Amino acid sequence: MQLFTKLNDGSQIPTMGYGVFCIADEECEKHVLNAIKTGYRHVDCAQIYRNERGLGNALAKTDVPREELYITSKVWVSNFGKDKTIKSVDLSLSKLQTPYVNLMLLHRPFGDYISAWKDLEKCVEEGKVNSIGLSNFNKKQTQRILDICKIKPVINQIECHPYGAQNKLKEYLFNNDIAVEAWYPLGHGNKKLMSEKILLALAEKYSKTPAQIILRWHIQNNNIVLPKTVRVERMVENFNALAFELTKEDVALINGLNKNKMLFNVPNWVQKLNNKLFPVNLD
Ligand SMILES: NC(=O)c1ccc[n+]([C@@H]2O[C@H](COP(=O)([O-])OP(=O)(O)OC[C@H]3O[C@@H](n4cnc5c(N)ncnc54)[C@H](OP(=O)(O)O)[C@@H]3O)[C@@H](O)[C@H]2O)c1
Asked: Between 182 and which of 2, 45, 209, 223 could a Cys-Cys bridge form, CB atoms 3.0 to 4.6 Å apart?
């Protein structure tokens, strides 16, 4: 079973994606091929994960045609800047062994993200990228892009899970027709979250696991999800969150776990620095 979310440029993204953060380049091909065998058709990668080559090897080997797969990558902040961003997209495409990615995001709102956005718009015009979007942009930063863009961002990929539901930012994004992708959808496997009483009770009620309950909660709250796992049985488990439904009342119970608590904190002093902080060589 597949579900799709329609984006503001008319394209469709599979609502369930497979995230490859924290997977080594040499392991990535194997895990992506397993995910594709499980049924995933959407993979979420990034330049800074340093595993675009492994994902590219999987794309080269799989029997599933490229047009049935939805591939996302993200430009890292050290690659922001006029022409620099385009060059980095070219390098990503060569590592990924594909002539285009479905979606390219600006990974974090540091440095010259305005020039980076203009470069991404050129990549769309040149057919290297189908859709473009943001990641970790707050309301003000998203608005800065909306104020200067020729092409509107289709998505903002943000940390989102039952402890940090991001309701205010989501309301602003949905009002601007920007879809939400939830990273850390399982709270990065946070043990406290996964053993919340309400989730255990709902898992029993629906004969599902707490992870499936959380993923289903995301889907019914209009979030695109990107759970990561290296275990095939969990790939299947997570994917099967597409195939059942929570009642509105049960979604509301999980909404009650929200404490606006982010599990991945970027310290304020880091927020204030520009991309000089990230002298990363991603060749
Ligand atoms: N844009 C950004 O800044 C950003 C930041 C972080 C992440 N992301 C994206 O979001 C994706 C997901 O985030 P994430 O990988 O950090 O966190 P996550 O998907 O919330 O959680 C992954 C953790 O949960 C465990 N897990 C997975 N399925 C499970 C299940 N069914 N039951 C119990 N535990 C389970 C995994 O362990 P095992 O692997 O051992 O199963 C792993 O430790 C990333 O891969 C990446 O694509 C984006």
From this structure: 223
